[in-house]
Amino acid sequence: MGFPDLAHKQEATRGDALAIPTVAAMIAVLFAGSTVLTPLYILYKQQFGFSQITLMLIYAVYVVGNLGALLLFGGVSDVVGRRPAALAAMIVAIVSAIVFLFSENVLSLDIARILSGLGIGIGAGSGTAWIAELLSRADRSRASVIATSTNFLGLGFGALVSGLLAQYEPWPLRLVFVTYLLALAVVTILVWRTRETVAKPGSLRRISIRPQFSVPQEIRARFVAPAVTGFGAMALVGFYAAVAPSILAQQLHEANHAVAGALFFELAIVAAASIVVLMRVQSNRAMLAALGLMIPSVLLVVAAQISASMALMIVATACCGVVAALGYRGGLQVVNEIAPKDRRAKVVSSFFICCFVGNALPVIGIGIVSTYAGSVAASLAFAGIIIVFALVALAFGVKHSR
User: Fold this and answer.
1) 332 vs 183, which has greater pLDDT?
2) Is 5 a domain residue?
3) Is residue 207 domain-resident?
């Protein structure tokens, strides 16, 4: 009589073994959609004739979707279930890719970017919770490592594949999105076949879209360091995703779209590897190390730009990858540690808001400064802001390290 139960358990175990890679692939393919444009910005700029400021705004408007997902739909998967929320995110991503495929003006690019950010915001939160529930209780600490590393892997492969297709294959602004749509379709089918982990999913009526974020007064001083760390780490990622291709073309005289994609791929791969290799580094030490490394990293980026040195840019990119990994992972873990249990979700949401703003706001500033004062001046201003923020955060972090 026990054999059918044993067979059922073995089947469920095999299903879960496939489920975790499936959900990880979902996170990766969603995030790939945010960097598919990285090697294409210059092509769009040439075809549509828009300015550098407009280019930066096209990049930054993606955060509108991220914030909308976080503030309004952050708890959707807790109510309706992980699989329905994940499938909704994939559908939004598919619509976004279709809009990109047929884009003929700046407005359509903006709409597609917002939809991409919305899909990623919903899917990443659902996927991270889904992985944690698919893992055994003893392994649930691995969920954040799997989610964050696959996040960066998706970012990297999105830029790399897009750059290769744009440089070496025909229809650079079309074939990329046909390929991406195929990847989304395959992963959507796999997600649809993955088991649900929410025991009793509810109806859509139970969803609350009231924004859920705040930082209790008693931890605000300790929140400064991880918040600024997340801001700075994501500002570096945004710099490479939006600005680096222009720097390569203008200062380093490298117009190859595959190289632009490969440079961001380097950043993402170093970040993903650092998350895995340095996962046992204590959270506060990881955060402080990221803040300390931010200063030489941004100075290396500026030095590479001024000296027009590709070798120096490669070294700077690797340093920024380590900073992004340590800053994002360390800052998030510190926030989880200092947040009161009954308000943890709200505090973590506040941290993510700082990350999203860091990913977008400095990029807009760079676009404005570079238009009126040149790209080198814009990079110097960016480096100066990052250095000041890092020093302030270090002061707060050291003071409250205990």
Assistant:
1) 183
2) no
3) no
